[in-house]
Amino acid sequence: RLSEELSLAASSLCTFLYVCLTGASASAVRAGIMLIVNLSARKAGRSYDLLTALSLSFLVLLWKEPYTVFLSGFQLSFGAMAGIFLGNEVTRSLYRCGTLEKRSGLLSSFLSSLWVTIVTLPVTVSNYYFFPPYSVLLNLAVIPLMTVVMVSGLCVLALGIPGLWSLSSAAAAPGHYVLKFYEWICGKVSSLPFSKIVTGKPGPAGILFYYVILAVCFVFLTTELSVRKKRDRESRKRQRKRNGCRIALTAASLGAVVFLRYREPEHAYVEVLDVGQGDCFHIHEEGTDILIDGGSSGYDKVGENLIEPYLLSRGIRKLDAVIVSHADSDHVNGIEYLLQEGKADVGILLLPAMGETDEKYDRLKAGKCREVRYLKAGDRFRAGSASLTCLYSGESAAARSDTNRQSSVVLYERGDFSMLFTGDMTKEDELLLMASAYGGMAENVDILKVAHHGSKTASGEAFLNKAAPTYAVLSYRKNNRFGHPHEETLKALSGAGVRMLKTPETGAMKICVKEEGYVIESFRNGIQSMKTK
User: CA torsion sign, 218 to 220 to 223 to 226?
Assistant: First the structure.
């Protein structure tokens, strides 16, 4: 019963307060601005233009915080609105040309959902590295019920005062059961075959190519459909040409979708993940992927929040082998997550020799993998043109009481390049390794993974002089409570003339192994160095 001016002011104020209440995220601010523009257009007697309102909210958000454009929520929100606009335009063209004779709310919703999925596909795979194909149909069940959830929540807020708590609880019931339904239906859909198509992180060229093809398809659909009646009167020859163009455009569209995936480099590489206080290394070799350790005592849920997203970003669903140096949590808690939750198809789980009898390895052995093996000194595995050899299996008598001394030592070799992975082995075990039959293989390595994150108990001078590495990788978290790396170890490395690569300084690193040598790329500082043969 208020005047139009007061209604507009009150509605705009409520919208503003709601945006603030929900945290003023990019999607909420975008929706709030577009709603206020819509209300203002009605008051002014003007037509509401979606693209104008969308552009205004885009500029306001960029003026407030330019870097918002890099957030996935920003990209998905604006991409979804662009998809709705494009879907509406195509649907109107279908009705105008007579392809769709009867207006159907369900069909229109499906087409809108389809176009939202199509437009936001590059954003989805760029940020989450996989595509859920059933989301188009799932949105038809989820989106209409969101009104029930919001109204239920607002009623809870309105009735959440003393004396009305029982009514508030009753008001929460509809929203509660809708959210339970969401949880149930999403669980059912995720269990279907091909519910998650892993693409990895696509490159900028693939994304640009996809959107160019999408723009061409949109123009083709809206212009071709609007002149269908005229086209029906054309000669058969011209009709065949148009059909050929349509087939070629469809093929190009399918090619654009296929191009939206991670492209593996042609060369082999070893990637050092920055897991903080822990170890995790990924070896890629001619279609073979191997993980060596994977855990952290400094980051919560390192498997869920870091290792799994990393593997997905590389388009990896299958790990041919997972090598565990020993059972300390900062080396295995991420691997335990992958195995127990079935987040990766693991071929062979390689445990140190003590893993056969030590109960600390039971959680690993109970995970999902095809085969469990126990490393012995001298065991050798081929991976494409490379090989991995176990030089030391941690079977000393002291290893029964000290988990660090159970560490297996693995040498990765490819051509003239070699890298030694030492787990948390101690100085005593280094001497045992050098005295063993395989000690000679640990000499003159290119890169050494410094044992036990650079603690005082590892990397003795005698071992460093024999291994003679050019570079040493130290994986640890800055200001950790263990005091790693120890000053004595750093002096020993420096005295041996070893160049140190510390993950708190370099971040993650990729060691690209090529025929002409190897390149160490730091994700924080750019390319570190290159060594040729």
Answer: negative
Longest dimension (CA), the chain: 93
CA–CA gap between residue 83 and residue 119 (Å, rounded):
5
Residue 274: partners with Cβ closer than 8 Å, 6 or more residues away: 475, 503, 506, 507, 508, 523
Q: Give the integer Cα–Cα distance in Å for 300 and 306.
A: 10
Bridge partners, 387 (sequence order): 382, 413
At a CB cut-off of 8 Å and minimum separation 6, what does 309 contact?
Answer: 129
Coil, strand, or helix at residue 132?
coil
Residue type, 72: S
Residues written for the chain: 533
Dihedral angle sign, alpha carbons of residues 207, 209, 210, 212: positive
Question: Could you give the CA distance from residue 293 to residue 379 in angstroms, rounded to a whole number?
Answer: 18
Q: How far apart are CA 306 and CA 311, in angstroms?
A: 9
Q: Which residue has the tokens 């001497």?
A: 431
Residue 253 reports pLDDT greater than 80: no
- Round to whole Å and give the CA distance between 145 and 335: 38
- Whole-number Å distance between alpha carbons of 438 and 428: 16
User: Which uninterrupted H or E stretch holds 152?
Assistant: helix 146-159
Given a contact cutoff of 8 angstroms between Cβ atoms, the answer to whether 189 and 118 are in contact is no
* Omega of the bond leading into 485 within 30 degrees of 0 (cis): yes
Whole-angstrom distance, CA of residue 414 vs CA of residue 514 = 9
Instruction: For residue 372, give the 3-state DSSP assignment.
Output: strand
pTM of the model: 0.83
Work out the pLDDT band at 120, boundaries 50, 70, 90. very high
Reported confidence tier of residue 419, pLDDT bands at 50, 70, 90: very high
Strand positions, DSSP E, 200-267: none
pLDDT at 77: 93
Residue at token pair 């609007």: 226
Q: What is the CA radius of gyration of the chain?
A: 30
CB 409 within 8 A of CB 420: yes
